[in-house]
C-alpha cells in the first residue's frame, strides 16, 4: 500500500513541475518588452534621484 502512495505522490510532483515549466514558457514576455520596462525603470529611478 505504501508503494502505491509513493508512486502516486511522485507522479503528482512530476506533473506539477512540468505544469510550472510550461506555464512559465507560455507566459514569457518578449525580450523587447523586458528591455523597455528595464530602461523605463532605470530612467525613472535616475529622475527620482536628481529630484531628491
Give a description of the structure.
By secondary structure, the protein is mainly α. It has helices spanning 2-26, 31-51.
Keywords:
single chain, 52 residues, mainly alpha, elongated
Q: What Rg is obtained from the alpha carbons, in whole angstroms?
A: 22 Å
> How much strand content do the residues show?
under 5%
Instruction: Catalogue the unreliable spans.
Output: none
Strand segment tally = 0
What sort of overall outline do the alpha carbons produce when their principal axes are compared?
elongated
Global structural class: mainly alpha
Q: Please count the helical segments.
A: 2
Helix content: over 70%
End-to-end Cα distance? 66 Å
What's the pLDDT, averaged over the residues? 88
Order of helices and strands: HH
Quaternary arrangement of the chains shown? single chain
Q: Summarize the main sheet.
A: none
In short:
With 52 residues, the protein is mainly α. The protein is built from 2 helices and no strands. It is 88% helix and 0% strand.
Topology, please?
Layout lengths: L1 H25 L4 H21 L1
Amino acid at each position: 500500500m505504501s508503494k502505491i502512495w509513493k508512486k502516486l505522490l511522485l507522479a503528482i510532483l512530476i506533473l506539477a513541475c512540468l505544469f510550472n515549466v510550461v506555464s512559465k514558457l507560455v507566459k514569457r514576455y518578449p525580450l523587447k518588452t523586458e528591455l523597455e520596462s528595464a530602461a523605463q525603470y532605470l530612467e525613472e529611478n535616475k529622475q527620482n534621484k536628481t529630484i531628491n
